[in-house]
Write a structure and sequence with these properties.
The complex is a heterodimer of chains A (203) and B (177). By secondary structure, chain A is an alpha/beta fold. Chain A has one domain. In chain A, 42% of the residues lie in helices and 15% in strands. Chain A contains 7 helices and 7 strands; from the N terminus they run αββββαααααβαββ. Chain A has helices at residues 16-32, 76-89, 96-104, 112-120, 123-128, 142-158, 174-186; strands spanning 47-48, 52-53, 59-65, 68-73, 163-168, 191-195, 197-198. The relative contact order of chain A is 0.19. Chain B is built from 4 helices and 6 strands, in the order H-E-E-E-E-H-E-H-E-H. Chain B is elongated. Classes of the chains: A alpha/beta (203), B alpha/beta (177). At the A-B interface, helix 1, strand 1, strand 2, strand 5 and helix 7 of A face helix 1, strand 1 and helix 3 of B. Strand 6 (191-195) of chain A pairs antiparallel with strand 1 of chain B.
Chain lengths: 203, 177
């Protein structure tokens, strides 16, 4: 008697389609992801129980840590126009090369007089440079002008009001925060966001 | 699994030399594994990196005519001192002795909820108004924490106001400045 043979099927599956989908998704995620920009000072953000997601565009961030203030705004055209306008106020002319560097700079914090020489540095030296923070005094009015010009540029380009977010370090003493809020209120920005981490309320 | 089939290409009678025909099947398992690993990585990093924020509104400083007088009887003032401690009092400054408290479930939160209920009961359901006065010795974390406690206690009417000298003196007396 011949034995009944069980047909053996190959376990190999065709993975081509799966591979296609996987790489398609991978490409999508790579292209849409944006890596976190390094903070100029270590910032440990405080927790809050009810947070909203901050939009990715139309946002200016004021980073406050070690009693220094840093400013950054999203969008290359806005940054360009802001730099030109602030340059006009303090009569500093930025060359196209310097503007190109500034356009991709994440956040900066230095008096406007130092900005030109900072932009001329090569990338490695720029990374090592310890930024002193934007002056918040009312004599030179620098932070005020940066925020104001950023808002003006945003209204001109995006036709939307710029959202201002404050990213403060937990250990930062209140006077610096108070100065920054006062600068914002001076230009009638009474509503802004505080960047916080989501936490759960201890029961 | 991994097969690169190299069959075929046997001798033919014609004597024609044929190149060896290999199967086009390549094992993609490893490649798919890698692709999914990277997808997972990018997916997690993109969603986790989104900044979260809380909204904050400050009272308008310029427009005097818009400002309503705050009924002192319904207000609770919170003073933020150093060492993550707070002081709070009800009503007008100097009328009642401030209570030193700390953050947390049994500290400020309990006080806020109790006072809020009490005020609502005595004022016919009108909500309590909270004033936060951060001193120069308080930290940003205290400030956010205080706002968070108000949020947890469900107190909608609150404002951040500048501290006065009398209140600073009181904080000093309690060693919180």
């Amino acid at each position: 008697m011949p034995r009944v043979k069980i047909a053996r099927k190959s376990t190999a599956t065709d993975m081509t389609a799966m591979c296609d989908v996987a790489f398609l998704l991978l490409t999508f995620f790579i292209l849409t992801s944006k890596f976190r920009t390094e903070d100029p000072v270590p910032v440990d953000i405080p927790g809050y129980t009810k947070t909203i997601l901050l939009p990715e565009e139309n946002v200016a961030t004021l980073t406050i840590g070690s009693s220094k203030v840093f400013f950054g705004v999203e969008g290359i055209p806005i940054r360009k126009q802001m730099l030109e306008e602030v340059g006009k106020i303090y009569s500093i002319n930025f060359t196209p090369e310097e503007e190109a560097v500034f356009e991709v700079l994440p956040e900066f914090g230095m008096p406007v007089s130092q900005l030109k020489s900072y932009l001329d540095l090569d990338p490695d030296a720029r990374k090592k440079f310890v930024q002193p923070g934007i002056p918040t005094d009312s004599v030179s009015n620098q932070l005020f002008n940066w925020v104001r010009e950023a808002r003006k540029a945003d209204v001109a380009i995006n036709e939307k009001a710029l959202l201002i977010a404050i990213k403060g370090d937990s250990k930062q003493e209140y006077p610096t925060i108070k100065t920054v809020i006062a600068i914002l209120q001076k230009q009638k920005v009474n509503k802004f966001s505080l960047i916080t981490a989501l936490k759960t309320a201890p029961k | 699994m991994a097969e690169l089939d190299t069959s075929g290409g046997g001798k033919h009678k014609g004597g024609k030399v044929r190149s060896k025909k290999s199967s086009m099947r390549v094992d993609l398992t490893a490649m798919v594994d890698l692709a999914f690993l990277l997808i997972t990585f990018f997916m997690l990093t993109t969603t986790l990196m989104k900044a979260k924020a809380m909204d904050m509104a400050m009272p308008d400083k310029d427009e005097q005519h818009d400002q309503l007088p705050v009924p002192a009887t319904r207000t609770m003032t919170i003073l933020l001192g150093s060492h993550n401690k707070v002081e709070w009092y009800m009503g007008e400054t100097g009328k009642s002795a401030p209570t030193v408290d700390n953050f947390g479930k049994n500290g400020l939160r309990k006080a806020l909820i109790e006072n809020s209920d009490k005020e609502k009961a005595t004022h016919g359901g009108l909500p309590m108004i909270v004033l936060i006065k951060p001193s120069d010795k308080s930290t940003y974390a205290d400030f956010v924490e205080a706002l968070d406690e108000l949020n947890i206690a469900g107190i909608d009417i609150h404002a951040v106001v500048d501290i006065t000298d009398i209140e600073v003196a009181d904080l000093k007396k309690n060693g919180l400045y």
